């Protein structure tokens, strides 16, 4: 699986409270759940193949997570953000009303987090639609559209090709 060429400025920290989360795929696409390690390197953690698939993760509030389509590199969001930082269970507990907390020892509840599509600009959405109907990156220059948009489609097509090639290599190893 390839990862974006733009540097990731987020990375996991060694301190922080625990967080118990459940990422749920609400898209019609395959989603790779990615943890950003202590150096900021993306580490594939789980693949959610179908809509409704989920993964339970015991993590920490200072551990960032990202979500990507392994086939074309498109990013997804959780709580409207491409990079999600979990909230500690203590913070979630304090948000509860006192009667909800109760005195009995109830298990800590996982926070359900929905992986969704980002709200794209009209241009970005149009570029993705065009990319999905073309067979080869070079085909973008055959379209009767402005050259700058042809170039944008071409770049998206190359990114899609690299992701497919990387996925093929990963499956062979």
Automatic annotation (TrEMBL):
<dbReference type="InterPro" id="IPR022772">
    <property type="entry name" value="VHL_tumour_suppress_b/a_dom"/>
</dbReference>
<dbReference type="Pfam" id="PF01847">
    <property type="entry name" value="VHL"/>
</dbReference>
<feature type="domain" description="von Hippel-Lindau disease tumour suppressor beta">
    <location>
        <begin position="21"/>
        <end position="87"/>
    </location>
</feature>
<dbReference type="InterPro" id="IPR024053">
    <property type="entry name" value="VHL_beta_dom"/>
</dbReference>
<comment type="similarity">
    <text>Belongs to the VHL family.</text>
</comment>
<dbReference type="InterPro" id="IPR037139">
    <property type="entry name" value="VHL_alpha_dom_sf"/>
</dbReference>
<protein>
    <recommendedName>
        <fullName>von Hippel-Lindau disease tumour suppressor beta domain-containing protein</fullName>
    </recommendedName>
</protein>
<dbReference type="InterPro" id="IPR037140">
    <property type="entry name" value="VHL_beta_dom_sf"/>
</dbReference>
<dbReference type="InterPro" id="IPR036208">
    <property type="entry name" value="VHL_sf"/>
</dbReference>
